[in-house]
Design brief:
The structure is a single chain. With 279 residues, the protein is an alpha/beta fold. It has a single domain (9-278), classed as 3-Layer(aba) Sandwich (Rossmann fold). The chain contains ten helices and nine strands. It has helices at residues 18-29, 41-54, 70-84, 107-117, 119-134, 156-179, 216-226, 232-244, 254-265, 270-278; strands at residues 9-12, 33-38, 60-64, 89-92, 97-99, 138-143, 183-190, 201-203, 249-252. The strands form two sheets. The chain has a seven-stranded parallel beta sheet with strand order 3-2-1-4-6-7-9, sandwiched between helices. Strands 5-8 form a two-stranded parallel sheet. It starts with 8 loop residues before the first strand and ends with a helix.
Length: 279
């Protein structure tokens, strides 16, 4: 069976670290050519260096992009298309975190997170869709989260963005099914992944529960130690397999699968379970 990703052009946001970096490496292993971006140019160059060392024949185009900036994302898509002449996949992966109660959270921090985690996905889809339509096949991958399936305290902004990504993705996928059958869309829901998202996070005031005195970084480290069982490399493999199999929804990790089932079985009462865990 022919490897669909061989010689494909794949664009990835947030490729400087975590899942985005692992996706770039795994796509290079598949024989794809890459257009990777990140707001952290130094981290992005480190990703490119790793790819060049392991897969020297892979073409890698890098751009420093803030996905919250619509004009930057649209210009990036034009630059990628001008360079490669085609685009097959856009993976909207870039994201940040915010830890705060609703009462304490500042509007500016809420807007900052939504601009990146939600609007960054919208910008990526709208900027790259015209180019995907021109290719023989195309695929949009929007990274939501386990927190796009269930909610937890202190993460209302993050939940809002990730639930919104899920709804946006499902609507867009139906539109593609109706009008562009050569295009597919996957919405990804990673569970606990050992990443450094706290490096791109903000604290937003008082927090609830036993973790009330922790910074976002401390909470991230604590989460990684106790709950994050999936590595970025494992997550990337699951996502790539989902792209190849054209899965509309990709759950990453046993925790994501278990809590997705819990939410479906107890769509309201699961909140009491979460309350006990965080109290």
């Amino acid at each position: 069976m022919k490897n669909q990703l061989q010689d494909a052009v794949i664009a990835i946001t947030g490729a400087g670290s975590g899942i985005g970096q692992s996706l770039a490496l795994q796509c290079a292993k598949q024989g794809s050519n890459l257009a990777i971006c990140d707001i952290n140019l130094e981290a992005l160059q480190a990703t490119k260096s790793q790819i060049s060392a392991l897969y020297p024949h892979t073409d890698v185009l890098t751009h420093k992009i803030n996905v919250a900036d619509k004009d930057q994302v649209f210009q990036w898509s034009e630059d990628v298309f001008a360079y490669y002449g085609k685009i097959n996949v856009i993976i909207n992966n870039a994201g940040v975190a915010l830890s705060a109660t609703v009462e304490a959270m500042q509007y500016k921090d809420f807007e900052w997170l939504m601009d990146i985690n939600f609007w960054g996905v919208v910008h990526g889809c709208k900027a790259f869709l015209p180019h995907l339509k021109k290719a023989p096949w195309g695929h949009i991958v929007n990274v939501s989260s386990l927190f796009g399936l269930i909610s937890t305290p202190n993460t209302s902004a993050y939940n809002s963005a990730k639930f919104a990504v899920k709804g946006f993705s499902e609507s867009l996928r139906i539109e593609l099914m109706m009008s562009h059958k050569h295009l597919n869309l996957s919405c990804v829901h990673p569970g606990g992944i050992k990443t450094n998202i706290a490096n791109y996070a903000r604290d937003g005031g008082d927090k609830l529960g036993s973790a009330g005195r922790m910074t976002t970084k401390e909470r991230n480290d604590n989460f990684n130690d106790k709950f994050a069982k999936t590595t970025p490399e494992q997550a990337a493999n699951i996502i790539i397999n989902g792209i190849i199999k054209k899965r509309p929804r990709i759950l990453v990790g046993m925790d994501a699968k278990a809590l997705d089932l819990l939410q479906r079985l107890l769509p309201v009462r699961y909140q009491k379970v979460v309350q006990k865990v965080f109290s």
